[in-house]
Automatic annotation (TrEMBL):
This is TetR/AcrR family transcriptional regulator. It holds the Pfam family TetR_C_43. One of its GO terms (molecular function) is DNA-binding transcription factor activity. Keywords: DNA-binding, Transcription, Transcription regulation.
Length: 190
């Protein structure tokens, strides 16, 4: 019997890594206390395989964080290019809220690993994504022209502080309405 080719081994490793990340995302969104053993079992890999890819729980959380936030950043530009500004902003904020389900409960690990966000390589790109959406809305005069992306980011922080469970979706929708309403231009009332 011949041993598997190096290419097959690399393909398996890539598939295992992707499966681990997918399962970990679901597991951490459901419970920040999900164990590495439970994640390995749900991913259909041995614990040793999981630890070869992610030597610590923090390493797994940070890789998942970087992967998920990059998806959110990329969507801002896609939505800004393909949708009317207010719809693009709303759809993107919904994705930020979805991402918030993952971040809820893991924020302590993420903040510790990024020095409270100061050493986060995603910070600048995330602000740029917000700015792209704000600029599109300002160009159509649907959003205020003088909005600071850092101020908007502070507002968005509320989305990943919503505890999961009953009422979370309704609370998210209400907060999104409040955030968007605060960003919109208003006709002057004289």
């Amino acid at each position: 019997m011949s041993s598997p080719s190096p290419r097959a081994s690399r393909t398996d490793a890539v598939a295992n890594r992707a499966r681990i990340l997918a399962v970990a995302g679901e597991a951490f969104a459901a419970s920040s206390g999900a164990s590495m053993t439970a994640i390995a079992k749900r991913a259909g890999v041995g614990v040793g395989t999981l630890y070869r890819h992610f030597p610590t729980r923090e390493a797994l959380i940070m890789e998942l964080y970087h992967q998920e936030i990059q998806k959110v950043i990329d969507l801002a530009y896609e939505f800004a290019a393909d949708l009317p500004p207010l719809e693009a902003l709303r759809r993107w904020l919904e994705e930020v809220a979805r991402y918030g389900k993952l971040k809820y409960g893991l924020s302590d690990v993420i903040h510790a690993a990024t020095d409270g966000g100061h050493d986060d390589p995603n910070y600048g790109p995330f602000l740029s994504a917000i700015d792209a959406l704000l600029d599109a809305g300002a160009a159509t005069q649907e959003l205020k022209a003088d909005l600071d992306p850092q101020d908007v980011l502070l507002q968005l922080g509320a989305l990943w502080r919503i505890p999961p469970g009953d009422g979370a979706a309704a609370r998210t929708a209400r907060l999104l309405d409040l955030i968007i309403d605060g960003l919109r231009t208003r006709p002057s009332h004289t």
